[in-house]
Every structure is written in C-alpha cells, then in structure tokens.
C-alpha cells in the first residue's frame, strides 16, 4: 500500500496581502501529477487545508477542483482531516457526498471515536487493505472539560491527558474493526508532537505551551505510521521513522521560502513490519527572496535575481511568476528614497518588453549597523490602558500590510466598532 502524506496547504493564504492562488494552483497540479507518477493508493492530508475558517470562493474552488480531479486518478482513496485553521463545519458539510468518491473527510473530532476510523480497500478487493485513525485537530472542548479554579499547569496537564486518551481510544476502535491482524493501521494528527523542532518563525501555537501536546512515544504502538500536520518543516518526531511531519505544500513566509517544501511517500506492508518512506520535494512556483545585507550587496542580489528570471525559458515563465522580495538594509545612516532606488535597480535589470518587473518588493526596511545610543526606556502600558485603535494599528503594522491596505483595514475596524456600539445602545 503506497501512501502520499501532505499537509498545511493553507489555500487562500496571502503574503503581505498578495494573492497566492497561482502558486497553489500550480502546486496542486504538481501534486496530482505526482500521485499518478508514483502510483499512490491513498492520499493523506493532515490538516490546514485552508488558511482561514471562512475562505474565499476562489480557495474553495481550488479545493473542490482538486478533489474532482483526484477522483479521476487511480488513487483508491483520500483521507482529509481538519486543522486549527480550518472550519470543521465547512469541511464536514459535503462529507457524505465525497464519501461516494472514496474521499473521506473528518473536519472535527467525533463524539463516537469509531466515526474517525476509515477502512480502505483497493479497487476490486473485498478485504480491507488499510485502516486509518483519522484524527483531526483536537480542540480543547473535544477532549476535556474545564474545571473551575484550575491552574494553568493543571489545564495543560489536562490537555495532554485528553490528547493521549483520544489517541488511545481511536486506536482501540481501529483494532476492534481489524479482522485480519496483518492489516496495517495508520493515524493522522494536527498538533505539536514532543521531539519535533518548531521553527522560530512560527508566531502562535495551537494550545498554550503546546510544545508539550503529546510526546512521540505516547502514540499507540499499533500505528504503523503517524501522518502529522501543523509544523511546516519536514521532520521526524523524536527520531522515529514512522512519526513524521511532511511540511507545507508551498512556503508561507519568506523564511520558509529559503527551505525545501515536500510531501512524503510511504510504503506500508503488513502490520508491524518496518515501513519505507522517502521525501519528494515540491518545486517552487515563485521565488521568495529574503535579503538582509548592506545596500550594495542587496542591489547585486536583485540584479542577479532579475537576470535569472530573464534567462528562464519562456515555457517555464508561464508557471514562474514575478519573484517577491523582503529586504532589510543594514546601514549606519538613514537612506532616503530607498524603495525607489531599489525599484530602479530592478527596472534596469529587467528585460525590455517584459509584462512587469522581474522582482517585486513586498517589504523594505532599514537596520542600523551601529546600535543607536540607548534612550530612556519608555514606560510600558498595560493592555487595558491602550485604546482599541492603538492595539489594532499595532497588529496591522506588525503584519506588514501596505499603507493603502492598512488604511482600508482601519476604516473597516472603525465601522465595526461603531456598529457594535450602536447595537449595545
């Protein structure tokens, strides 16, 4: 039985408010080709199919278009579980229809864990070839009840215990329907497993202090493979070959843009036998340049990137959009008109007659080489002392929106506040 493990698609994602649809469309087309070329029997998608709970129509179209095309391949089945970014209700809504296409969706934890167990047989086989414990992202309400007066430490211990218990229960449910002891059982998950190294770039966790969600050794031994999502860098968990994150399908940040993206091909035989697996790297469908250097070095890097884009064969240019750049200039003195200076460098290096620049600058900033003299520390304000607009302004500034988009968001925020105030009155 050959499995392709992927996760963290984040359809609908935007980078500095730029649309990623062309990259996602190309990545999903590549994924379909890989499924065909590798003769994949089962596709596993371990959460975060979408980037937000209420994705755009365009993102939904990408998802359903992919599923429709997948159903026409030789892939016997797909198992798709929800992540912390996904809306369980939205994912689960068409699950009964999709089941007729052998596409099994578990958007949220089920009250009866037996409903998370998926039986898969290859076409023409009467016997079950694979059992999947399709565990989605586990929300706190799915695994425990909060207790009045409990401490943070007690709450975290309760979360860990709830996650472990859920996996034990679903493992037992999977074993209870296994008629042939040689039938392999695999599991999915969308969490942070102890023994994985979270990337420093990640801004938020699923649970408070979720580096202790569950240790790799706590997954039941009955699982021949554990397909995980949530961490965007491919890796083993605690050195175990059979417990893995495959990484995200496309780079979601400029830091991730400097790393390899991948899926994992897993070959499973009889239950209890060692598996074999290998990483398959996903091509980059847009170059993300992360430049952190002095001005002359950055200029040269931009020229090199523009020339590389210019020399790309025309057939490939159709699937290789303009490169995006995040730039930090190291300097002892403020450089006026910095963005314009860099845009001129790109324009000079871009081939005449091109549809647009070879490189688009999404963000540019300046960093002092020599630390400025220490100023008296500003008095820190408590959150309750801040005006809501100050808080929201800080968020959109930190997220790097363009000035125009920031103005639009602030206007929307004010309108929403006014509406809430009117409703309260």
UniProtKB/TrEMBL annotation:
* BP-aspect Gene Ontology terms: DNA recombination; DNA replication
Q: Which UniProt keywords apply?
A: DNA recombination, DNA replication, Endonuclease, Exonuclease, Hydrolase, Nuclease
Nuclease SbcCD subunit D C-terminal domain residues? 285-393
Transmembrane regions listed in the UniProt entry: none
Q: Name one GO molecular function term.
A: endonuclease activity
Q: Which residues form the Calcineurin-like phosphoesterase domain?
A: 1-233
- Report the function annotation for this chain: SbcCD cleaves DNA hairpin structures. These structures can inhibit DNA replication and are intermediates in certain DNA recombination reactions. The complex acts as a 3'->5' double strand exonuclease that can open hairpins. It also has a 5' single-strand endonuclease activity.
Q: Which family does it belong to?
A: Belongs to the SbcD family.
Subunit composition and interactions: Heterodimer of SbcC and SbcD.
Name listed for the protein in its UniProt record? Nuclease SbcCD subunit D
Which gene holds the coding sequence for this protein? sbcD
């Amino acid at each position: 039985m050959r499995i392709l493990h992927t996760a963290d698609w984040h359809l609908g994602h935007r980078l500095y408010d730029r649309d990623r649809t062309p990259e996602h469309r190309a990545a999903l087309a590549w994924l379909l080709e890989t499924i065909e070329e590798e003769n994949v029997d089962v596709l596993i998608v371990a959460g975060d199919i979408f980037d937000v709970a209420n994705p755009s129509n365009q993102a939904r179209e990408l998802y359903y278009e992919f599923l429709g095309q997948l159903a026409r391949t030789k892939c016997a089945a797909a198992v798709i579980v929800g992540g912390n970014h996904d809306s369980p209700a939205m994912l689960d809504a068409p699950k009964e229809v999709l089941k007729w296409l052998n596409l099994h969706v578990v958007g949220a934890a089920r009250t009866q864990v037996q409903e998370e167990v998926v039986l898969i047989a290859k076409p023409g086989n009467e016997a079950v070839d694979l059992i999947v414990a399709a565990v989605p992202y586990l929300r706190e309400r799915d695994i425990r009840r909060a207790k009045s007066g409990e401490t943070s430490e007690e709450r975290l211990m309760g979360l860990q215990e709830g996650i472990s218990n859920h996996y034990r229960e679903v493992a037992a449910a999977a074993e209870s329907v296994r008629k042939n002891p040689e039938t392999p059982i695999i599991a999915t998950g969308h969490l942070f497993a102890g023994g994985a190294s979270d990337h420093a770039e990640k801004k938020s966790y699923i649970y408070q202090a979720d580096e202790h969600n569950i240790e790799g050794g706590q997954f039941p031994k009955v699982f021949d493979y554990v397909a995980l999502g949530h961490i965007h860098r491919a890796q083993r968990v605690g050195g175990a070959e059979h417990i893995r994150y495959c990484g995200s399908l496309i780079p979601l940040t400029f830091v991730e843009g400097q790393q390899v993206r991948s899926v994992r091909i897993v070959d499973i035989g009889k239950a209890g036998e060692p598996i074999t697996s290998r990483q398959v790297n996903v091509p980059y469908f847009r170059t993300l340049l992360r430049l952190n250097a002095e001005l002359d070095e950055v200029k040269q890097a931009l020229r090199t990137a523009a020339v590389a884009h210019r020399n790309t064969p025309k057939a490939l240019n159709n699937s290789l959009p303009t490169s995006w750049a995040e730039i930090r200039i190291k300097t002892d003195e403020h450089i006026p008109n910095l963005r314009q200076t860099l845009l001129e460098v790109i324009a000079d290096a871009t081939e005449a007659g091109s549809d647009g620049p070879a490189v688009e600058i999404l963000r540019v900033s300046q960093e002092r080489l020599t630390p400025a003299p220490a100023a008296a520390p500003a008095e820190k304000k408590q959150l309750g002392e801040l005006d809501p607009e100050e808080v929201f302004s800080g968020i959109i500034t930190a997220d790097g929106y363009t000035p125009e988009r920031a103005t639009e968001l602030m206007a929307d925020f004010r309108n929403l506040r006014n509406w809430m105030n009117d409703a309260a009155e």
